[in-house]
């Protein structure tokens, strides 16, 4: 298992958490997604996967949910 934490900007509520979780969870190999919501700041999104997930795939999923990947 691989665990990687990404910072995501723009999340403010539980709906934001649900949207990002849904999009990232749909990626192949993702086992779980945990989010530490920090409204008004970068939220930590921890992805546990069976294999390393390409950062560009995470970025695309976060963008699809309507948010911005701040860093990896």
Automatic annotation (TrEMBL):
Keyword Acetylation found: no
Pfam families per record: HMA
Protein name: Heavy-metal-associated domain-containing protein
Source organism phylogeny: Bacteria, Bacillati, Actinomycetota, Actinomycetes, Micrococcales
UniProtKB keywords: Metal-binding
Recorded GO MF terms: metal ion binding
Domain HMA: 2-70
């Amino acid at each position: 298992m691989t665990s990687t934490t990404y910072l995501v900007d723009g999340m403010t509520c539980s709906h934001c958490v649900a949207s990002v979780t849904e999009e990232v969870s749909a990626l192949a190999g993702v086992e779980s997604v945990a989010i530490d919501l920090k409204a008004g700041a970068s939220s930590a999104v921890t992805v546990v996967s069976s294999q390393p997930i390409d950062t560009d795939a995470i970025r695309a999923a976060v963008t699809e949910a309507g948010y911005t990947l701040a860093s990896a």
